[in-house]
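Late entry, evening session. Most of the bench is empty. Finally got around to the prediction I had been postponing all week. Sequence below, unchanged from the version circulated by S.P.
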Amino acid sequence: MATYIRRREFISTLCGMAVAWPLVARAQQPERMRRIGVLLPAVADDPVWQARAGAFLQALALLGWTIGRNLQVETRWASSNAGEIRRHAAELAALAPDVIVASDATLPSLLQATRAVPIVFPIAADPVAAGYVKSLARPGGNVTGFMAFEYSQSGKLLEVLKQIVPGTTRVAVFRDAASVSGVGQFAVVQAVAPFLKVEVNPVDLNDAGEIERDVATFARTPNGGLIITGAAAAVRFRDLIITLAARHKLPAVYANRLFVAGGGLISYGPDLLDQFRRAAGYVDRILKGEKPADLPVQAPTKYELVINLKTAKTLGLEVPPTLLARADEVIE
């Protein structure tokens, strides 16, 4: 009987060792290094895009991805130059990383360079209209991500303008008429305007001189205000638009916090840092085996209201307490 017990213990020990050996071997092996590419339409010292890239990397770290241990990041700062964007897109595609992160401005060049590497966009105006994905629910290709805004947001910009200046009866809407999203945003403002008793005038974001002339003409009649929709073209003319609003003493509501930080009056729009954090979640899922085709494009979930009190004072405006109470950030 004792012999039988010893034999059984011996066999159990062997089995345990057989199970333990591969576990020890796996523990001794370094983690598999994964590589991601990041293509940004800005220069490397741009504080806005640095903050966005930082938010993305911090979110990845919280998900267990550490640069140098299990992750390698290839970042390309392409500025806004089309030639630079194409060159860097080709470079990143040639590296064949596990996934690439790209914005609306860099996506077309990347899709020309690769239809195989998974791509996640933290911000894109209308990915279906632009042809990046087949549908929001089922993207269907190698691209997925997060929308830069919902069209209904454009109507809320007009509501905010009426709250801060109730006497507004005319509004000039800055739009990108060359894009589907620009036309769509303007259409939403037009639809809401009659209910708020406001006349709508378009200002196309094509040429600096044309913008300046249009705003000067608009400002000759009283009770006017400006709405700057969420368009990449608006960001290109940011300094000019802020200057014109101040020169003609026109209250302006922007879709991007960037304008208010630069001296604009008020903004209401998605928290774009949050968009980059959410993009890290999709990158994590793709690195763990999921496909972009199966990850739905998502709308913003976090919006922010930012008010510049210094600009309000310069314009002679008193911000309603109810609006101040709702503000996520107040610049004084």
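Two things to note before I forget:
Residues 2-28 form the longest helix (27 residues).
DSSP finds 13 helices and twelve strands in the chain.
Will write this up properly tomorrow.
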